[in-house]
Amino acid sequence: MNKSQVGELKEHEQERDFFCVVRDAFRVFAHRCSAMLGSAWAFSAAVLVILLWLITGPMFHFSDTWQLIINTATTVVTFLMVFLIQNTQNRDAKAMHLKLDELIRAIKNARNELVDLEELSDEELKKLEDQFRRTRRRAENDEASPSRQEDPVETAASPR
Length: 160
Description:
Distance between the termini: 59 Å
Low-confidence stretches: none
Mean pLDDT: 83
Strand content: under 5%
Shape: flat
Number of strands: 0
Structural class: mainly alpha
Radius of gyration: 26 Å
Order of helices and strands: HHHHHH
Number of domains: 2
Largest sheet: none
């Protein structure tokens, strides 16, 4: 990278709005946390914390404060993990949809109408699922050739 490119990058970084910076920072944070907290080491550490808490029970006479410590800690950790897990799942789902959309677009005889199915309503998805189920049954009965007599996408998207 030359000096002009570095300068342009710094200018661009300064122009980014606050929410964009926060969103990117959270994305990186969530990705790293999901990698670390989804490991066997993190599980082992959690088990160790629980065991230490249990061992200290007699020392604190199993008091309300002793119980409150683990209840509060697990509640806070659970609350925060919900957001990390949801962020990771949203990103994974979006990446999977984009990959599948690209495969559908790349295959010559694929029906491009199947791209962006996640944008359909629940009712339209249910209709599509039912039609694919019927198509599969017809294909099972006539194993010589796949059935494409009824196009599930067109029927599901059409108004009643």
